[in-house]
Design brief:
10 strands; four-stranded antiparallel β-sheet; Alpha-Beta Plaits; Ribosomal Protein S5, domain 2; 2 domains; 10 helices
Length: 306
Protein backbone atom coordinates (compact mmCIF):
# COMPACT_ATOMS: atom_id res chain seq x y z
CA UNK A 1 0.00 0.00 0.00
CA UNK A 2 1.32 3.43 -0.87
CA UNK A 3 1.76 6.10 1.74
CA UNK A 4 -0.85 8.25 -0.02
CA UNK A 5 -3.50 5.57 0.33
CA UNK A 6 -2.50 4.80 3.91
CA UNK A 7 -2.93 8.46 4.78
CA UNK A 8 -6.30 8.76 3.07
CA UNK A 9 -7.85 5.61 4.42
CA UNK A 10 -9.57 5.45 7.78
CA UNK A 11 -7.67 3.89 10.64
CA UNK A 12 -10.26 1.15 11.19
CA UNK A 13 -10.98 0.27 7.55
CA UNK A 14 -8.33 -2.47 7.39
CA UNK A 15 -5.97 -3.39 4.54
CA UNK A 16 -7.01 -3.71 0.93
CA UNK A 17 -8.78 -5.44 -0.73
CA UNK A 18 -12.08 -4.11 0.58
CA UNK A 19 -15.43 -4.87 -1.05
CA UNK A 20 -18.95 -3.45 -1.02
CA UNK A 21 -22.13 -5.30 -2.00
CA UNK A 22 -24.47 -3.75 -4.60
CA UNK A 23 -27.89 -5.38 -4.05
CA UNK A 24 -30.53 -5.65 -6.74
CA UNK A 25 -33.29 -3.05 -6.53
CA UNK A 26 -36.81 -4.44 -6.89
CA UNK A 27 -39.75 -2.13 -7.57
CA UNK A 28 -42.65 -3.93 -5.91
CA UNK A 29 -44.93 -1.21 -7.27
CA UNK A 30 -44.20 1.65 -9.66
CA UNK A 31 -46.77 4.31 -10.53
CA UNK A 32 -45.93 6.97 -13.12
CA UNK A 33 -47.58 10.13 -11.80
CA UNK A 34 -46.55 12.85 -14.23
CA UNK A 35 -43.96 14.42 -16.45
CA UNK A 36 -42.02 17.57 -15.65
CA UNK A 37 -41.25 20.37 -18.06
CA UNK A 38 -37.66 19.13 -18.31
CA UNK A 39 -38.85 15.76 -19.59
CA UNK A 40 -38.24 13.75 -16.42
CA UNK A 41 -41.10 11.53 -15.30
CA UNK A 42 -42.33 11.60 -11.72
CA UNK A 43 -42.93 8.31 -9.95
CA UNK A 44 -44.32 6.81 -6.79
CA UNK A 45 -42.65 3.49 -6.07
CA UNK A 46 -42.26 0.93 -3.28
CA UNK A 47 -38.72 -0.39 -3.42
CA UNK A 48 -36.91 -3.23 -1.66
CA UNK A 49 -33.40 -4.61 -2.08
CA UNK A 50 -32.65 -8.28 -2.61
CA UNK A 51 -29.91 -10.45 -1.15
CA UNK A 52 -28.39 -10.89 -4.61
CA UNK A 53 -26.32 -8.38 -6.52
CA UNK A 54 -22.97 -7.23 -7.81
CA UNK A 55 -19.82 -6.53 -5.78
CA UNK A 56 -17.39 -3.61 -6.10
CA UNK A 57 -13.90 -4.20 -4.73
CA UNK A 58 -10.87 -1.96 -4.20
CA UNK A 59 -7.54 -3.74 -4.73
CA UNK A 60 -3.99 -2.45 -4.20
CA UNK A 61 -2.39 -0.73 -7.20
CA UNK A 62 0.78 1.01 -5.96
CA UNK A 63 1.62 4.02 -8.06
CA UNK A 64 -1.80 4.34 -9.69
CA UNK A 65 -2.85 7.99 -9.80
CA UNK A 66 -6.51 7.02 -10.08
CA UNK A 67 -8.37 3.72 -10.22
CA UNK A 68 -8.77 1.68 -13.35
CA UNK A 69 -11.72 -0.70 -13.58
CA UNK A 70 -11.82 -4.40 -14.40
CA UNK A 71 -15.08 -6.31 -14.78
CA UNK A 72 -15.60 -9.99 -14.06
CA UNK A 73 -18.64 -12.18 -13.49
CA UNK A 74 -21.30 -13.80 -15.67
CA UNK A 75 -22.48 -10.51 -17.14
CA UNK A 76 -19.08 -8.86 -17.62
CA UNK A 77 -19.38 -9.08 -21.40
CA UNK A 78 -22.32 -6.67 -21.32
CA UNK A 79 -20.26 -3.79 -19.94
CA UNK A 80 -17.16 -1.80 -20.90
CA UNK A 81 -14.67 -0.49 -18.36
CA UNK A 82 -14.72 2.90 -20.03
CA UNK A 83 -14.86 6.35 -18.34
CA UNK A 84 -18.65 6.48 -18.77
CA UNK A 85 -19.10 3.35 -16.64
CA UNK A 86 -21.02 4.38 -13.54
CA UNK A 87 -18.39 2.89 -11.22
CA UNK A 88 -15.68 5.13 -12.68
CA UNK A 89 -18.04 8.10 -12.86
CA UNK A 90 -18.76 7.66 -9.15
CA UNK A 91 -15.04 7.52 -8.38
CA UNK A 92 -14.38 10.63 -10.48
CA UNK A 93 -17.20 12.53 -8.75
CA UNK A 94 -15.89 11.45 -5.35
CA UNK A 95 -12.38 12.61 -6.25
CA UNK A 96 -13.78 15.97 -7.36
CA UNK A 97 -15.05 16.42 -3.80
CA UNK A 98 -11.50 15.91 -2.46
CA UNK A 99 -11.35 12.15 -2.01
CA UNK A 100 -7.82 10.70 -2.33
CA UNK A 101 -8.37 7.79 -4.70
CA UNK A 102 -4.75 7.03 -5.69
CA UNK A 103 -3.04 3.71 -5.05
CA UNK A 104 -5.86 1.28 -5.77
CA UNK A 105 -7.92 -0.09 -8.63
CA UNK A 106 -11.57 -1.12 -8.72
CA UNK A 107 -13.06 -4.46 -9.68
CA UNK A 108 -16.71 -5.06 -10.48
CA UNK A 109 -18.07 -8.58 -10.14
CA UNK A 110 -21.10 -8.29 -12.44
CA UNK A 111 -23.75 -10.86 -11.46
CA UNK A 112 -26.92 -8.95 -12.36
CA UNK A 113 -28.12 -8.72 -15.96
CA UNK A 114 -27.40 -5.42 -17.69
CA UNK A 115 -30.27 -3.01 -18.49
CA UNK A 116 -32.69 -5.26 -16.62
CA UNK A 117 -34.82 -3.00 -14.40
CA UNK A 118 -33.22 -4.02 -11.11
CA UNK A 119 -30.83 -1.10 -10.76
CA UNK A 120 -27.57 -2.85 -11.58
CA UNK A 121 -25.63 0.19 -12.77
CA UNK A 122 -27.13 2.49 -10.14
CA UNK A 123 -26.44 -0.07 -7.41
CA UNK A 124 -22.82 -0.36 -8.61
CA UNK A 125 -22.38 3.43 -8.48
CA UNK A 126 -23.90 3.60 -5.00
CA UNK A 127 -21.70 0.74 -3.77
CA UNK A 128 -18.66 2.54 -5.16
CA UNK A 129 -19.55 5.67 -3.19
CA UNK A 130 -20.03 3.67 0.02
CA UNK A 131 -16.73 1.88 -0.59
CA UNK A 132 -14.80 5.09 -1.21
CA UNK A 133 -16.30 6.68 1.90
CA UNK A 134 -14.82 3.77 3.88
CA UNK A 135 -11.33 3.72 2.38
CA UNK A 136 -10.77 7.34 1.31
CA UNK A 137 -12.59 9.68 3.71
CA UNK A 138 -12.89 13.26 2.54
CA UNK A 139 -10.59 15.74 4.32
CA UNK A 140 -13.46 17.93 5.47
CA UNK A 141 -16.57 15.87 4.77
CA UNK A 142 -20.01 17.38 4.60
CA UNK A 143 -22.77 15.80 6.64
CA UNK A 144 -23.28 13.16 3.94
CA UNK A 145 -21.09 13.80 0.88
CA UNK A 146 -22.19 10.62 -0.90
CA UNK A 147 -25.82 11.70 -0.70
CA UNK A 148 -24.82 14.95 -2.45
CA UNK A 149 -22.95 13.12 -5.21
CA UNK A 150 -25.49 10.34 -5.81
CA UNK A 151 -28.25 12.34 -7.61
CA UNK A 152 -25.75 13.57 -10.18
CA UNK A 153 -25.07 9.99 -11.24
CA UNK A 154 -28.69 8.99 -11.88
CA UNK A 155 -32.19 9.12 -10.46
CA UNK A 156 -31.95 5.64 -8.91
CA UNK A 157 -28.53 6.11 -7.28
CA UNK A 158 -29.80 7.89 -4.12
CA UNK A 159 -32.19 5.03 -3.29
CA UNK A 160 -29.49 2.45 -4.07
CA UNK A 161 -27.14 4.35 -1.78
CA UNK A 162 -29.52 3.56 1.08
CA UNK A 163 -30.33 0.02 -0.08
CA UNK A 164 -33.12 -0.30 2.48
CA UNK A 165 -36.91 -0.56 1.96
CA UNK A 166 -38.30 2.82 0.94
CA UNK A 167 -40.93 4.73 -0.93
CA UNK A 168 -39.50 6.85 -3.73
CA UNK A 169 -41.36 9.81 -5.20
CA UNK A 170 -40.63 12.70 -7.51
CA UNK A 171 -37.89 11.63 -9.91
CA UNK A 172 -36.42 9.50 -7.16
CA UNK A 173 -35.13 12.27 -4.94
CA UNK A 174 -37.97 12.09 -2.37
CA UNK A 175 -37.14 9.05 -0.26
CA UNK A 176 -39.15 7.83 2.71
CA UNK A 177 -38.07 4.81 4.80
CA UNK A 178 -40.65 2.02 4.93
CA UNK A 179 -41.13 -0.17 8.00
CA UNK A 180 -43.40 -3.11 8.69
CA UNK A 181 -42.41 -5.18 5.65
CA UNK A 182 -42.04 -8.94 6.18
CA UNK A 183 -39.27 -11.24 5.01
CA UNK A 184 -39.93 -11.56 1.27
CA UNK A 185 -38.87 -14.80 -0.45
CA UNK A 186 -38.74 -14.13 -4.17
CA UNK A 187 -37.58 -15.37 -7.53
CA UNK A 188 -36.11 -13.01 -10.12
CA UNK A 189 -36.37 -13.96 -13.78
CA UNK A 190 -34.83 -12.19 -16.76
CA UNK A 191 -35.26 -13.53 -20.30
CA UNK A 192 -31.80 -12.15 -21.11
CA UNK A 193 -33.18 -9.33 -23.21
CA UNK A 194 -31.95 -5.79 -22.52
CA UNK A 195 -34.61 -3.07 -22.36
CA UNK A 196 -34.18 0.61 -23.26
CA UNK A 197 -35.67 2.67 -20.43
CA UNK A 198 -36.19 5.76 -22.66
CA UNK A 199 -38.03 3.59 -25.20
CA UNK A 200 -40.33 2.24 -22.47
CA UNK A 201 -41.20 5.71 -21.22
CA UNK A 202 -41.75 6.90 -24.78
CA UNK A 203 -44.27 4.09 -25.28
CA UNK A 204 -46.32 5.08 -22.22
CA UNK A 205 -49.93 5.83 -23.09
CA UNK A 206 -50.74 7.72 -19.87
CA UNK A 207 -48.31 9.64 -17.69
CA UNK A 208 -50.60 11.23 -15.07
CA UNK A 209 -51.63 8.19 -13.03
CA UNK A 210 -52.53 8.36 -9.33
CA UNK A 211 -49.84 7.56 -6.80
CA UNK A 212 -49.74 4.73 -4.31
CA UNK A 213 -52.44 4.50 -1.66
CA UNK A 214 -51.43 4.77 1.98
CA UNK A 215 -49.75 1.61 3.19
CA UNK A 216 -50.74 -0.38 6.28
CA UNK A 217 -48.51 0.12 9.30
CA UNK A 218 -47.26 -3.46 8.97
CA UNK A 219 -47.83 -6.69 7.04
CA UNK A 220 -48.13 -10.01 8.84
CA UNK A 221 -46.37 -11.98 6.13
CA UNK A 222 -45.53 -12.09 2.44
CA UNK A 223 -49.08 -13.12 1.56
CA UNK A 224 -50.52 -10.03 3.26
CA UNK A 225 -48.12 -7.78 1.38
CA UNK A 226 -48.94 -9.52 -1.90
CA UNK A 227 -52.65 -8.89 -1.34
CA UNK A 228 -51.99 -5.17 -0.85
CA UNK A 229 -49.71 -5.08 -3.89
CA UNK A 230 -52.59 -6.42 -5.97
CA UNK A 231 -54.15 -2.97 -5.54
CA UNK A 232 -51.03 -1.39 -7.07
CA UNK A 233 -49.26 -1.82 -10.40
CA UNK A 234 -46.19 -1.14 -12.48
CA UNK A 235 -47.23 1.41 -15.08
CA UNK A 236 -44.15 0.59 -17.17
CA UNK A 237 -45.03 -3.08 -17.56
CA UNK A 238 -47.51 -2.71 -20.42
CA UNK A 239 -45.26 -0.58 -22.66
CA UNK A 240 -42.21 -2.71 -21.85
CA UNK A 241 -44.09 -5.90 -22.67
CA UNK A 242 -45.27 -4.41 -25.95
CA UNK A 243 -41.64 -3.83 -26.86
CA UNK A 244 -40.33 -7.11 -25.40
CA UNK A 245 -42.98 -9.87 -25.50
CA UNK A 246 -40.62 -12.21 -23.61
CA UNK A 247 -41.47 -10.23 -20.45
CA UNK A 248 -45.02 -11.58 -20.57
CA UNK A 249 -43.72 -15.13 -20.97
CA UNK A 250 -41.40 -14.74 -18.00
CA UNK A 251 -44.16 -13.30 -15.84
CA UNK A 252 -46.56 -16.06 -16.85
CA UNK A 253 -43.96 -18.69 -16.00
CA UNK A 254 -43.53 -17.21 -12.55
CA UNK A 255 -47.23 -16.75 -11.93
CA UNK A 256 -47.84 -20.41 -12.74
CA UNK A 257 -45.25 -21.64 -10.24
CA UNK A 258 -46.80 -23.40 -7.22
CA UNK A 259 -47.05 -20.99 -4.30
CA UNK A 260 -46.44 -17.79 -6.27
CA UNK A 261 -48.29 -14.97 -4.50
CA UNK A 262 -47.67 -12.22 -7.06
CA UNK A 263 -45.72 -11.89 -10.30
CA UNK A 264 -44.82 -8.48 -11.72
CA UNK A 265 -42.15 -6.68 -13.70
CA UNK A 266 -39.58 -4.59 -11.83
CA UNK A 267 -38.59 -1.11 -12.96
CA UNK A 268 -38.58 -0.71 -16.73
CA UNK A 269 -37.86 -4.43 -17.26
CA UNK A 270 -37.15 -6.94 -18.47
CA UNK A 271 -36.68 -8.60 -15.06
CA UNK A 272 -39.83 -9.90 -13.37
CA UNK A 273 -40.16 -10.97 -9.76
CA UNK A 274 -42.38 -13.47 -8.04
CA UNK A 275 -43.19 -13.36 -4.32
CA UNK A 276 -43.50 -16.63 -2.41
CA UNK A 277 -44.66 -17.56 1.09
CA UNK A 278 -41.33 -19.14 2.08
CA UNK A 279 -37.78 -19.70 0.87
CA UNK A 280 -38.38 -23.38 0.08
CA UNK A 281 -41.20 -22.69 -2.38
CA UNK A 282 -39.14 -19.95 -4.02
CA UNK A 283 -36.20 -22.34 -4.43
CA UNK A 284 -38.44 -25.03 -5.96
CA UNK A 285 -39.93 -22.52 -8.39
CA UNK A 286 -36.48 -21.34 -9.46
CA UNK A 287 -35.29 -24.91 -10.06
CA UNK A 288 -38.35 -25.67 -12.20
CA UNK A 289 -37.98 -22.47 -14.22
CA UNK A 290 -34.29 -23.14 -14.93
CA UNK A 291 -35.19 -26.60 -16.20
CA UNK A 292 -38.03 -25.30 -18.37
CA UNK A 293 -36.18 -22.22 -19.68
CA UNK A 294 -32.42 -22.83 -19.64
CA UNK A 295 -31.81 -19.62 -21.55
CA UNK A 296 -33.31 -17.40 -18.84
CA UNK A 297 -31.49 -15.90 -15.87
CA UNK A 298 -33.28 -17.18 -12.77
CA UNK A 299 -32.38 -16.49 -9.14
CA UNK A 300 -34.09 -17.49 -5.91
CA UNK A 301 -33.42 -14.85 -3.27
CA UNK A 302 -35.19 -12.73 -0.66
CA UNK A 303 -35.57 -9.18 0.54
CA UNK A 304 -35.04 -8.70 4.28
CA UNK A 305 -37.93 -7.37 6.30
CA UNK A 306 -38.02 -3.88 7.74
Amino acid sequence: MTGQVAKARGADSGPLPVSEFAPAKVNLALHVTGRRADGYHTLDSLVVFAAIGDTVEAVPAPGAASPSLSITGPFAAGLDAEPDNLVLRAAEAYAARGGAIAGFDLRLDKRLPVASGIGGGSADAAATLRLLARIAPLPRPAADPCATIAPRLGADVPMCLRSTPLRARGIGEQLQPVTGLPWLPMVLVNPRVAVSTPAVFKALVRRDNPGLADMPVAFADAAALARWLETTRNDLEAPATALIPAIAEARAGLAAAPGCLLARMSGSGATVFGLFPDDASAARAATALVAAHPGWWVAATHAPGS
